[in-house]
Amino acid sequence: MTTPATTPDAMGAAEVVPGRMSRWATNTALALIPLGLALLASAVILALLGVDPIAFYRDIITAGIVRESGRFDTITRMAPLLLIGCGLIYAFRASLWNLGMDGQYLLAAAFVAGLGPSVMSSFPVVIGWIVLSLTAMVIGAAWTLVPSILKARYGTNEIVTTLMMSFIGISLAVMLVSGPFNDPGPGPQTASLPREAMLWDLPGTSIHIGVIVALAVCLITYLVFARTSFGTRIDVLGANARAAVHMGIDVPRLIIVAFLVSGALVGLAAAIDIQGVFGYMRVDWNPAYGLAVVPLVFLARMNALALIPFAALFSLLTIGGLYAARRASIPSDFVLLFMGILLLFMVGTQYLTDRRARGESIAPKALLKGLRRG
Amino acid sequence: MDDLLLNEQFLTTVVLSGIVAGVPLLYASLGEIVAEQSGVLNVGLEGMMLVGAFAGFVVILETGSLWLALLGGGVAGALTSLIMVVFCIRLGMDQIVVGIGIVLTAEGATSMLHTSWYSRTFPRVPAVDGFAIPLLSDIPILGPSVFSQPLPVYVGVALVFVVGWVLRRTTIGLNLRAAGERPDSLDAAGVSVVRVRTGAELTAGTMAGIGGAYLAIVAGGAFVPFVTGGAGFVAIVIAMLARGRAIWALLGALLFGMAKSIGTASQLVGIDIPTGFVFMLPFVSVMAVLVIFARRSRLPSALGLPYHRGSR
């Protein structure tokens, strides 16, 4: 765990254990214990519903890892989770609650799907992808602009403003897809990207190259917080805004920048999803990743590299769970139930493992103080 | 356009279905106001509404009584909020993380239960009769819409004034607001912060559960997975904008409810307004107000922070 000491609360128990290795071990244990408990509790629920839990978990593994196509799907699904997760890390570490990710994602997706066919036909593919991805990042970032300016200049609570902007963004995406971006054809949806305009797959797989981009963004995000002054300034702002002012940090500007980066990465997630997997957008389509990514970010303790295994796990549960749920004839929403239980066990474990940190939490205390400031 | 918009049938439909859509928001945001005033940020509101919706649906299918169903929804919502009480208020864990956990768990659990119990039959609930207030219900437009609603609507409106009165004029309300502003002072005055917040949170859970049950039974006619569709988060927004004033919950709930209904009603009379556009109007106008007046959304100073005796 190399999280800078500016967010000690994020580490909870790790704080009292010296040494990098044992800290790492503690954090792994802190993640694995609730995982095991959540698997156990879910098994009980499955059994109560008359489903054999062992067969269910075996089906998840089979469909999500063992089968080649499932393995590829699992890895592909990690891309949007990682990018949205990294986006949230920039906001959360600055003690800013960006809860508008679903609107940022969907609006960016609508623009990529709507402009995609014409952009791809007028540029070479690689340039086209870059143009579309940059468009999505600008849209995603723009959608955080009003909340960030209000927060930076007047301290308006960003939970309210980002949620509202999210609702507006979702409605706007619906309007765009059923209006100007509508393809007069099968139904309320955009035209599809031609097959050759979709992101390339890695050789011998059906995993598109967007996954590499997502992993690179994770590495960059990690390095930003571990090695750069920009990352440290965000951490200082997150830990104590007043200290940040005394350090000479331009706090309003940093708030806006952190928000913009956050929104841009969420937009990039949408661009990669549309160009790599879906190719078009239906008016009622909304993957609503947002709420499920928040627990992953907290499980990873806002560390972008630690986010990767958790995103892989969630992705496996989603892809494998779909198949396992169909076989057991229960809805695939089981994954949500599992995530919810996992989250509750996580806070519980955190509480029990460190009595000293009673009252502290996996969300940095400063993040909660931000509420108070707002 | 004018004669279309002023069409009596259109207006009646808008107001009528606006109130139907607004009442769940009203109940939930009233509950959220109480919780927030006591310093508990109840992000799990959506989950409590869903559990209440499912429980209310089960009860009305079994008993056929609307009132028992609303009661069942309220009890289920309160039971769900017990998670918040134990984890956050008693043990001091993170309110936002636990809240998100509640939403996810409730979404998964109600969807799975619905599938395993009702996926073959998909039962529906008969429409609930309105209660026509004598004389007032004869007024054109307003009569058949505002004054002929099911009784829980009037109860909700009455609760606005009850909550407003309790918060501003009674000792209970004073304790609640103290728990949200200066919990240490309240403790020093000999009142248990934990107990006050527990009461507030249970109230919020109950109200959200009733709102959810109303949404599934009266507004929807049946429970389907994810029936609340973000209403809980809209209610949180309304509560935060209301800044502790119950009357704003009524106005907010009506505004958002009407916006939802204008889309539906305009399709009925054949005007083609994009539904998305109408739905986002209230959000846009609230954002515009925030931008123009740039006022702080005043929140209790201990909101979201657990209280530990002697911790500072």
Provide tags for this entry.
heterodimer, A: 374 residues, mainly alpha, ABC transporter involved in vitamin B12 uptake, BtuC, 15 helices, 0% strand, globular, disordered N terminus, B: 312 residues, 13 helices
Task: Describe this structure as you would to a colleague.
The complex is a heterodimer of chains A (about 375) and B (about 300). Chain A contains 15 helices and no strands. With about 375 residues, chain A is mainly α. Chain A has one domain: ABC transporter involved in vitamin B12 uptake, BtuC (Orthogonal Bundle), CATH 1.10.3470. In chain A, helix 4 crosses helix 11. Chain B is mainly α. Chain B has a single domain, classed as ABC transporter involved in vitamin B12 uptake, BtuC (Orthogonal Bundle), CATH 1.10.3470. Chain B is about 70% helix and about 0% strand. In chain B, helix 3 packs parallel to helix 5 and helix 3 packs across helix 10. Chain B is globular, with a radius of gyration of 20 Å. The interface between A and B is large, with 59 and 58 residues.
What portion of residues of chain A belong to β-strands?
Answer: under 5%
Helical content of chain B stands at over 70%
Characterize the overall form of chain A.
Answer: globular
What is the terminal-to-terminal distance of chain A? 30 Å
**Tally of domains of chain B:** 1
Task: Using a beta-carbon cutoff below 8 angstroms, give the protein chain pair with the largest interface and the number of residues from each chain.
Answer: A-B, 59 and 58 residues
Give the structural class of chain B: mainly alpha
Shape of chain B: globular
How far do the termini of chain B sit from each other? 63 Å
List segments of chain B where confidence is low: pLDDT < 50 over at least 5 consecutive residues.
Answer: none
Encode the helix/strand succession of chain B as letters.
HHHHHHHHHHHHH
CATH architecture of chain B: Orthogonal Bundle
**What percent of residues of chain B are in strands?**
under 5%
Q: Catalogue the unreliable spans of chain A.
A: 1-17, 356-360
- The average pLDDT value of chain A, as a whole number, equals 85
In the CATH hierarchy, the third-tier topology of chain A is known as: ABC transporter involved in vitamin B12 uptake, BtuC
User: What's the Cα radius of gyration of chain B?
Assistant: 20 Å
